[in-house]
Amino acid sequence: MPIHHHVYFSFNDSASEEDTQSIVEQFYALKKTNLIQDFFHGINNSPELLNKGLTHAFIIYFSSTSDRDTYLSHPLHVAFVEYLKPFLKDVMVFDFEPSTI
């Protein structure tokens, strides 16, 4: 069953535009793991103001929970998380298997 992995960030005030751009580029580079089926990202522009301060969204598709779990412990992902931590103000992760009614 495919997995949708949603990751939402807000960055510390000290994070520059260059820092956030580097983070986005390094996140995209995780496609090298060959576990990611598809990857999208964007900056919040909702007029509803319900983002709770989270500004950047990353949507990653995996073909299975096994691929997602392997990705989470992959050395490239672990190194990315360590690089990212000093820049983060907040993070939320939400994974689900898509279903229809």
From TrEMBL:
Q: What domain of life does the UniProt record list for this protein's source?
A: Bacteria
Taxonomic path: Bacteria, Pseudomonadati, Pseudomonadota, Betaproteobacteria, Neisseriales
Ranges for domain Stress-response A/B barrel: 3-96
The annotated subunit structure for this chain is: Homodimer.
What is the recorded name of this protein? Dabb family protein
Coiled coil regions, renumbered to chain = none
